[in-house]
Write a structure and sequence with these properties.
By secondary structure, this protein is of the alpha/beta class. Helices cover 14% and strands 34% of the residues. A hairpin with a 4-residue loop joins strand 3 and strand 4. The two termini are 15 Å apart. About 14% of the residues have low confidence.
């Protein structure tokens, strides 16, 4: 069974429940399509669906996919840590974060979220973060300039962008999005640079239970959509 939930400042709204008899499950975060294909439960919580900036009644982009072995966050706009604390999702259970692109309404909430998790001593295992090239620099710089130490380690895996994703004004506004791999934040562990395959698909995670892949989306800056697919279960 799958539950889709949306949180605003006042209450939780149950949006949809789906059941299916097949044995595969796919979730596309960008288009918000979810197909349930097993008897186990996945739960979607919409912490924010607004754009540009949060409002008193609507948070910036942030979605939680809760599963048996933890919770995955997709985008982390400004104020997501507040919405998270109002929901039933435990911050310490968030073990993976996927950032679609580097606009503020999709990732300005990351430094605050990391501090909230650390301040409440809610996590000890490393936290994995996936996103476009430049995300590592943003997180590291935010934590270093604020002299912030966390109570857990984090790993940033970056997706190498394609030439067609580079903004047309790159020559007018040159930005250094890479960072020194030899000088990590004290809580940082070295991550990977993930390149697209011949079909322009990035494989972020793959094991015998589940896989996560990304495709590029047309936007003003490099942007990605994520697809989560559960492996087939024998006998079901």
């Amino acid at each position: 069974m799958i539950k889709l939930r949306r949180w605003n400042a006042l209450k939780e709204i149950s949006l949809l429940k789906l059941r299916s008899q097949s044995n595969r499950r796919t979730f596309c975060s960008k288009s918000r399509q979810l197909f349930a294909m097993s008897s186990s439960t996945m739960e979607l919580t919409f912490l924010g669906t607004g754009s540009a900036y949060p409002s008193p009644s609507r948070g910036a982009s942030c979605v939680i996919l809760k599963m048996d072995d933890g919770s995955w966050m997709f985008d982390c706009g400004e104020g997501s840590q507040i919405q998270l604390q109002k929901s039933k999702v435990r911050a310490g259970k968030v073990n993976k974060i996927f950032i679609s692109h580097l606009h503020g309404d999709h990732m300005f909430g990351l430094p605050g979220l990391l501090c909230t998790i650390s301040g409440n001593n809610q996590r000890s295992e490393p936290l994995e973060i996936f996103g476009p090239v430049g995300l590592r620099r943003f997180i590291r710089t935010s934590l270093e300039l604020s002299r912030t130490m966390l109570g857990f380690s984090y790993i940033v895996h970056e997706m190498k962008v394609l030439p067609c994703q580079i903004p047309p004004d790159v020559q007018k506004w040159k930005i250094e999005d890479s960072c020194n791999e030899q000088r990590l934040h004290p809580n940082e562990r070295k991550g990977c640079l993930i390149e697209a395959d011949s079909d322009n698909v990035w494989t972020l995670l793959s094991n015998d239970k589940i896989s996560v892949k990304a495709v590029y989306l047309k936007h003003r800056i490099p942007s990605f959509g994520f697809c989560i697919q559960e492996a087939a279960s024998p006998g079901k």
